[in-house]
Amino acid sequence: MSKIFTQNLLPAGMAGKEVMEVLSFYQKKRFIKAIGLFFMLTAFMVPLNASSQQSYQANASASQVADAIDEFILTPDLAQQVGSVWNKTPIRLDRSFDFEFKVYLGSKDSNGADGIAFVLQPLGTTVTGGSGGALGYGYIKPSMAVEYDTYLNLPYDPAKDHLSIHKNGDTGTPLITAVVANSTGNIEDSKWHTTRIVWNARTQNLTVYFDGVQKLSYTDNIVTNIFSDSPEVFWGFTGGTGGSSNLQMFSVVKLDFASGMTLNAVSTNQTCPDFSDGSITLAPTGGTAPYEYSIDGGMTYQPDNVFRGVSEGKYTAIVRDYNRFTSSTSVNVLQHNDLPIITSLTGGGTDPVSLSSASVSFSAQVTDDNLATASWDWGDGSTSPGTIEGTAITGSHTYLEPGVNRVTLTVTDACGEADVEVFEYVVVYDPNGGFVTGGGWIDSPAGAYTADPSAFGKANFGFVSKYQKGATIPSGQTQFQFHAAGFNFHSTSYEWLVVSGHKAQYKGEGNVNGNSGYAFMLSAVDGAYNSSNPVDRFRIKVWLKSNGQVVYDNQMGSSEDAEATTALDKGSIVIHDSKFTSTSTSSLTAAPAQNSDFLEEQFFSYPTVFSDINTVAFALDKIERFTLEVYDLKGALVQKVTSGLAEAGKLYHFEVNGERLPEGIYIARLATDSQLKSLKIIRKNR
């Protein structure tokens, strides 16, 4: 069936000669059965859905598909139809574009007609060309069109559905040879087809793709040669039917513009997790003001170029100018909050401090740029805020009680992130305070002896630790025997002693099974010293000085300043307060043991070299009478210290007064009913 075009309204100013020229032109194409006049339609406009009403103008038989965005019917499947749809925003041909559409050319092949066209024209958004073979754009001048022709018009058209490029409403003479649309030659196949139209303003080339295949390429200075050096045009689609018909439609897939704009995006990073306080600032160059801005890929726009309250993430930023041209870029908003890290914590010293001058100062360095608070925990139950100066933190404290204190610094930044550093330990001792003695045995748990973790059983101990008058280093003796493991520890020196209420703790060095190179810390609790828990408790930790490897610890895994928790099975621990003044006949121990095997027989003194007071300690393995005396090297008795009845397994401590003794070597002799023991002590003036 041949194509027919219908009469429409005659544009003002069109002369009769021009009408006859149009008539003659279409007669030459031999598709006219019912002769009629063809005119530009300027008055018949179709309402659009609200979603596209602001962007597109539909005319004559064209309409928007209900509830669809940017999808339009150009002609219904009726004869003698013509329609056009124009985007209301003009584009500039001195800027490149890349448009992609879907087109539907109907379902009737042999008796379907006539086709559609993509058209560029400067006349406005209400123009419509002729129906039938005019494809809705015939006689629109000036114009440029890409024709999707579905009807054979001999001798001008290929024998199959085809594509071609035309200008100025001339549908009979293509600018370049028409090409068949696809391999089947049929695009009236009830299918949507993809077409892409690319204009390169720099090379002045128009390229047309159909279903992903390049079909046409045309190069010309169309701004000058067609549009008389006026680059601004409207774009849209037209369609027409004649005696034959088809449902003909198009939809917009994407519209990419090269607007000559560039977009620079600057982000301010989110400072804290979940704060959403980042920002993005967009700065376009080129284009035509006013601008609109988006950071959600074009879903929404705003007139302000600054986006505030932005969360961490990657954003597609877009600027859209007055001509609806766009430029985009990607921008990242990061979470900027360096975690605070305490890189150094110094102060306090490594030596014990006397209670009489127990003021300490600490300083720390932190890597962070938004520190908010710093807090010192001094380990004695008191805290104080740290002084923050940039990345430096300082603090000072005066201790009022003896103790082994763990100093903890906690820093927190503005985002609530924190770091903690611990200094171990500040040891505060009172040389005029109390001292501690003890003896008995405990059940050593499995795992306490690292060389044989399975070993467990009875372990005996005996100790005394005290500050002699005027001394800053304590003296005494400590012995510990764990028989099941063959472990025997004997102290050789002390470093410090802290007595605080019902607790005592001291540190020193010693030998293990006669071998030197070991350090130890002993913690003792006197349950009878104003304590709600009347049980005496004991802990000893021994380690290699060379590498810190723990050899024995009956409270394995606990911090060194932790209170002792292992209860005595037999024996006692006594905290002697500073009010106690011993004499040569005073026993300085606690209650006697109930079983003689808990503490092996011992006899020792401390310090070995003394000036005024020397303490002699002993324990017997059975109840016996005893006499403790001091002789010079000539065998003369110089001091009778004490005598009495000693209970089995009880550790006794007695003081030898050396104030009236001349310098020299003396022998302390312990005589019992069954034996005689002696040891050497040295008196030396200060």
TrEMBL record:
GO biological process, one term: carbohydrate metabolic process
InterPro entries documented for this protein: ConA-like_dom_sf, Ig-like_fold, Intracellular_Lectin-GPT, Lectin_L-type_dom, PKD/Chitinase_dom, PKD_dom, PKD_dom_sf, SprB_repeat
GO molecular function annotations of the record: hydrolase activity, hydrolyzing O-glycosyl compounds
One protein family per Pfam: Lectin_L-type_dom
Cross-referenced PROSITE patterns: PKD (PS50093)
Domain PKD: 359-418
Domain of life: Bacteria
Protein name, per record: PKD domain-containing protein
Originating organism: Pontibacter diazotrophicus
